[in-house]
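Title: Comparing notes on inverse folding

I've been comparing how different people in this forum approach sequence design from structure. To keep things fair, I'm posting one structure and asking everyone to reply with a full sequence. Here's the target:
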């Protein structure tokens, strides 16, 4: 009963857990399903493509939401609370980066998001004291500016060298933190706005849907242009998944906000009990994400003799077995044990460091 209360009590926000669960399973689908056609609202056969690119951006936006909720919600931390919050973020970032590097070294053929996630946690350290208006204003400005800068950065010769390839894997450059800070800022901003308020949730749903319509609509309107695919303008003016183009940042960022809001509103209804298994996955997203890739690695080694064979692994049709196993294991664990094991280790380590590290005043010689 204590585990049930932990999963469904006031200390957890069911809608945020649901959104996290969808993001984790969406990234698994993007990795393991053959997605050959771009997403098109008018063609139901392409709807599975909604997970491509959008799931990882949803995951990054939820990082900002989680940081905001863990550091005071509507009231930014100050004084000793701020010091501890910043230390905890730094420790979390280091541990998440190390876990991400381990996953990269397994050779599983996916772009691991955890190194980027870790860098976003580092970047969040000086942002904790900012208020809603400032956070959302900075997010809006960077959403327009950084895709322009990103095209230039991506064109640097560095990325074509061996050291550049190693660096890109170490920092998760497939999800470039230089632009993805926009999604963290947006998530942190809505958390500071008071994400539990229905008015904020409705505002998120409307604003997110409008941004998605603008981004994807502009991309669809320019789809027939015969621009050079290698040109600066083509790289910038696109909503293609993982392009980090201006229209993807606007459209998929808005999509993430709308999904989070829809999940929050849905969990005000009786459907909150129907989606409990998905919420259980979202209550331990790090464990679920890492567990999926570790199982992938072990199965690929045992069956294919090499983990890097993406086509061979997909041919085994592993998505549904892995997805169902993830949901079942996370639900059973949440109800019988409680917190996810990796979440417990990371949080416990962060709290221990923050609690034992003395303040600057205590470091002066006496």
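Reply #1:
Here's my take.
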């Amino acid at each position: 009963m204590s585990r049930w209360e932990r999963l469904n009590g006031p200390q957890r926000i069911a809608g945020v857990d649901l959104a996290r669960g969808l993001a984790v399973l969406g990234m698994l689908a993007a990795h393991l399903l053959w997605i050959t056609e771009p997403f098109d609202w008018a063609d139901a056969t392409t709807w599975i493509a909604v997970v491509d690119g959008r799931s990882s951006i949803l995951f990054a936006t939820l990082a900002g939401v989680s940081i905001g909720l863990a550091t005071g919600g509507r009231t930014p931390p100050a004084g000793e609370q701020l010091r501890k919050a910043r230390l905890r973020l730094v420790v979390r970032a280091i541990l998440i980066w190390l876990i991400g590097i381990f996953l990269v070294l397994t050779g599983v053929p996916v772009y691991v998001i955890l190194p980027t996630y870790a860098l976003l946690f580092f970047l969040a350290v000086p942002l904790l004291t900012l208020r809603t208006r400032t956070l959302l204003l900075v997010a809006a400005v960077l959403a327009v500016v950084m895709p322009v800068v990103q095209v230039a950065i991506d064109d640097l010769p560095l990325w074509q060298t061996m050291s550049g390839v190693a660096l890109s894997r170490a920092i998760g450059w497939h999800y470039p933190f230089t632009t993805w800070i926009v999604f963290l800022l947006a998530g942190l901003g809505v958390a500071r706005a008071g994400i539990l308020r229905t008015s904020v949730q409705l505002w998120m749903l409307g604003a997110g849907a409008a941004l998605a319509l603008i981004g994807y609509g502009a991309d669809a309107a320019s789809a027939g242009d015969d621009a050079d695919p290698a040109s600066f303008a083509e790289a910038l003016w696109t909503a293609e998944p993982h392009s980090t183009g201006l229209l993807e940042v606007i459209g998929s960022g808005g999509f993430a906000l709308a999904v989070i809001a829809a999940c929050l509103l849905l969990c005000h209804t009786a459907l909150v009990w129907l989606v409990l298994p998905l919420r259980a996955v979202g209550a331990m997203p790090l464990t679920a994400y890492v567990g999926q890739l570790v199982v992938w690695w072990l199965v690929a080694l045992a069956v294919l003799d090499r983990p890097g064979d993406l086509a061979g692994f997909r041919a085994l049709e592993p998505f549904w077995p892995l997805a169902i196993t993830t949901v079942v294991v996370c639900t059973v664990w949440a109800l019988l044990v409680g917190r996810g094991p990796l979440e417990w280790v990371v949080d416990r380590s962060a709290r221990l460091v923050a609690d034992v590290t003395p303040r600057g005043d205590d470091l002066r010689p006496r």
